[in-house]
Amino acid sequence: MKSIDVDVAIIGAGTAGLSAYKAAIKSGNTQSVIMIEGGPYGTTCARVGCMPSKLLIAAAEAAHSAQHMDPFGVHVDGVVRVDGKEVMDRVKRERDRFVGFVLEGVENIPAEHKLRGFARFVAPGVLEVDDHTRVHAKTVVIATGSSPSVPPPFKELGDRLVVNDDVFAWNDLPKRVVVFGPGVIGLELGQALARLGVTVRVFGMSGSLAGISDLKVRQAAKKIFQDEFYLDPDARVLETKRVGDEVEVRYIKLDNSECIERFDYVLVATGRRPNVASLDLASANIEVNPQGVPAFNRQTLQVGALPVFIAGDVNNDVPLLHEAADEGHIAGLNAANYPDVKPGKRTIGLGVVFTDPQIAMVGLGPDKLEKGKFVTGELDFSGQGRSRVMLKNKGLMHIYADIQTRRFVGAQMVGPVAEHLAHLLAWSGEQGMTIDQMLTMPFYHPVIEEGLRTALRDAAAKLDAARR
Ligand SMILES: Cc1cc2nc3c(=O)[nH]c(=O)nc-3n(C[C@H](O)[C@H](O)[C@H](O)COP(=O)(O)OP(=O)(O)OC[C@H]3O[C@@H](n4cnc5c(N)ncnc54)[C@H](O)[C@@H]3O)c2cc1C
Ligand SMILES: NC(=O)c1ccc[n+]([C@@H]2O[C@H](COP(=O)([O-])OP(=O)(O)OC[C@H]3O[C@@H](n4cnc5c(N)ncnc54)[C@H](O)[C@@H]3O)[C@@H](O)[C@H]2O)c1
């Protein structure tokens, strides 16, 4: 077996790993860096995550718009035809373009900085890659990402069971798909498939919906999506079994009747699991929690006091692309500068679900705020001027403000252009702005941001009332 000595070893060449690599190299503080990748290059985001999902959603939105023009007095005379093969062809073509950019970047990394194979610890600071190379590293960055977590009973469905990766490998759209898990993935893909003409049922557990913790916002979202496709966030599924090339599901419908339906595929989107199992962390004396994830400092990304850092989905903290990139940067820099470990800049929480209407979450939700210490400014999008003009007037926005400081602390919403509203709010939060300061900002007319102002005004009035 070949043996090499390096300053920094990075396990995983996804978004976090590549970001760690760039930061370590840029630090100028290290002689040697190696980035180890076992799977295909290209990143989860570009290959089977953010980008292909948004491409499928874009096709779905085009189909939906074309089918819903009548209220404007604009009619499509004839049928709006969705060609599944063409839809999937564009998804894959454009996806490959995005992956191509990542591959180009990897290609430009010197060969001596790259190692192919799956790494695992065999001792503190010592990794074995497949069975060909032993790497002795002064510091290690773990950036191995996450994988779909599939509950065991679904595994009996064989090739009728699919996860997100499989959807983006389809050459054509199937006719009927049952989705388990109305989280971010299930809701985005479920709605997109439904809009593309696939018969879709989405089943969840215990009422949870796309991670929305504000019950009133969640209820508003549930109603909007239920008006469009079959969604039961608290489903009573009695049996799921394979019958020939189909899957039969017996369940209690929302109207309480029992029903049996057959589907081409079961899309399991019941959450993701950090890729830690095969790393053999125990060999490096790394203690882990019940999920197998080491305890780490979220400012430095350091694992305990060890020369080990953990970044991206694998640390199971905030599994989002921009967080993986930020964490990779901090981890890479600290690994290169070890033992001079410094806290890096973390930003306010920001999450967007690309459904229509979109769902967005910023900062803290009501579940994380102390009862009686905050007020909630509200906007119901049904009467919001610009949204109504565009017939996008569905949704609810909640803005949370701290009674003591009058500062914006968080927001949850379902509504039009939530991706943009959420950015304005996140940037305000980053600046530590009060609701009053936010209200001094300009608001054009007529724009959806005027709805944000309504919610801010409501919050300001409630803050005043809370003080009296
Ligand atoms: C369907 C879907 C849609 C998404 N949409 C969005 C979105 O719109 N916006 C957003 O912000 N986020 C989105 N995400 C989340 C986002 O994709 C992830 O947060 C991000 O890709 C995580 O990057 P990472 O570097 O941690 O992991 P990855 O990119 O998965 O990289 C990990 C790498 O480590 C490698 N590896 C694993 N184990 C080993 C080992 N032992 N040895 C060597 N290599 C190993 C893997 O092969 C992989 O290449 C989405 C995710 C999915 C699944
Ligand atoms: N737009 C985005 O930013 C975006 C898009 C997709 C994915 N992601 C990232 O990927 C992560 C994983 O997404 P996800 O949707 O797989 O996970 P998730 O944790 O968001 O949702 C999983 C859902 O499945 C439900 N569930 C669990 N077991 C179930 C069962 N047996 N039957 C039915 N429902 C069940 C849960 O209650 C939950 O609602 C997200 O947390 C997010 O960070 C982000």
From TrEMBL:
PANTHER family: MERCURIC REDUCTASE (PTHR43014), PYRIDINE NUCLEOTIDE-DISULFIDE OXIDOREDUCTASE RCLA-RELATED (PTHR43014:SF4). The keyword Oxidoreductase applies. Keywords: FAD, Flavoprotein, Oxidoreductase. GO terms for molecular function: dihydrolipoyl dehydrogenase (NADH) activity. Its cofactor is FAD. Residues 352-455 form the Pyridine nucleotide-disulphide oxidoreductase dimerisation domain. Its EC number is 1.8.1.4. It comes from the Bacteria. It holds the Pfam family Pyr_redox_2. Belongs to the class-I pyridine nucleotide-disulfide oxidoreductase family. Residues 7-328 form the FAD/NAD(P)-binding domain. The keyword Ligase does not apply. InterPro entries: FAD/NAD-bd_sf, FAD/NAD-binding_dom, FAD/NAD-linked_Rdtase_dimer_sf, Mn/Fe_SOD_N_sf, Pyr_nuc-diS_OxRdtase, Pyr_nucl-diS_OxRdtase_dimer. This is Dihydrolipoyl dehydrogenase.
